[in-house]
Structure to design on (380 residues):
């Protein structure tokens, strides 16, 4: 556990930027051949640069919209104000007064002071919303989710519209595939039940917004975010160099990471009841195929995979000639790095995942060219 000095240092660092960066999670830092540009394309102020295995975010340009963190498949970027845990708590509190409907509003709509602040959660921009939170709300009993942004063409975040629309589409597609009646809706106005005549007087220290709090409360929120989201989940504050953090082990593997949002999403979907058949189209997960005739068994796809979705057969000795690769769709984040590092063009990646594969506890096995099939309980 971090001591008080660690927490203060983290808080000071987080105050400088609304987005925490964990560069070793970025696939372009992990391997310069990676083609991913999702965060760069989503950032409307050109605050992000990735060059020569180095990642930088200019906090002086960043507008805190959160779009970069929403589209990043490996969670190399994490919103700090609000952090995921704080936003989930605020939304749960607010929805309890709305008969289970979770309402989120952008800062511009919240600033109109026409709705009861205890009945919605505020974010700087709805691009901050991502699938894992929306799916988690549905799995925990939400009857609906409403995102209020006013559709303002003059808003400084207006270029984020495509990110918001894609998140809503992705979430609804997954909810429908898992038989949920809950849907995520965008609205230009607050639901009628939230609008009150004396809302102006209700905006004080008890409001659920994160961006108009007193300085002391804001500092407290930053400390909470740093402790729960950055220090515990993403490993922010590691003083080692990128080269040291990504150095290959004796077995030839580069460090792999758990994905907190990814785990929340898969657990939420599983709680709704996994589809018995069919294909799930999503950007959250992926499925890989390997052409054994093209593959030269170098294993670089498994070496650079950031999550361990592709991995060497654990039964094989380290550095021995590669005979098998195992793949787990539930751990794949569709970052595409496995495809980018394969110089034989033997891999293909798709976001259309067979339902039975997504929820299969036994990984799929690829037998390399010339390898003998292994025998066992699940491979006969």
């Amino acid at each position: 556990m971090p001591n008080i000095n660690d927490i203060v240092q983290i808080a000071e660092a987080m105050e400088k930027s609304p987005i925490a960066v964990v560069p070793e999670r970025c696939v372009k830092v992990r391997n310069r051949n990676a083609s991913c540009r999702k965060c760069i394309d989503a950032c409307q102020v050109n605050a992000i640069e990735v060059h020569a295995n180095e990642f930088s975010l200019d906090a002086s340009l960043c507008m805190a919209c959160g779009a970069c963190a929403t589209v990043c498949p490996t969670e190399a970027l994490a919103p700090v104000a609000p952090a995921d845990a704080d936003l989930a708590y605020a939304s749960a509190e607010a929805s309890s007064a709305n008969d289970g409907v979770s309402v989120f509003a952008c800062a511009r709509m919240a600033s109109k002071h026409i709705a009861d602040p205890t009945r919605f959660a505020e974010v700087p921009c709805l691009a901050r919303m991502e699938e894992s939170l929306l799916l988690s709300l549905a799995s925990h009993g939400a009857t609906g989710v409403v995102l209020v942004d006013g559709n303002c063409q003059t808003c400084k975040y207006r270029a984020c519209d495509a990110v918001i629309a894609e998140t809503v589409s992705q979430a609804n597609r997954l909810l429908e595939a898992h038989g949920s009646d809950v849907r995520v809706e965008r609205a230009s106005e607050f639901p009628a039940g939230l609008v009150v005549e004396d809302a102006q007087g209700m905006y004080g220290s008890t409001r659920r917004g994160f961006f108009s709090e007193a300085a002391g409360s804001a500092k407290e929120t930053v400390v909470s975010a740093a402790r729960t989201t950055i220090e515990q989940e993403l490993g922010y504050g590691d003083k080692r160099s990128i080269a040291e953090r990504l150095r290959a082990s004796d077995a030839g593997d580069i460090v792999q990471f758990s994905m907190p949002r990814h785990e929340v999403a898969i657990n939420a979907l599983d709680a709704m009841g996994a589809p018995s058949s069919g294909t799930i189209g999503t950007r959250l997960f992926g499925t890989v195929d390997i052409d054994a005739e093209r593959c030269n068994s170098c294993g670089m796809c498994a070496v650079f995979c950031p999550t361990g979705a592709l991995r060497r057969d654990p039964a094989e000795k380290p550095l021995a000639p590669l005979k098998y690769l195992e793949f787990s769709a539930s751990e794949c984040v569709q970052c595409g790095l496995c495809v980018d590092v394969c110089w034989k063009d033997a891999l293909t990646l798709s976001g259309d995942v067979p339902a039975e594969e997504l929820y299969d506890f036994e990984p799929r096995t690829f037998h390399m060219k010339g390898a003998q099939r292994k025998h066992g309980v699940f491979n006969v």
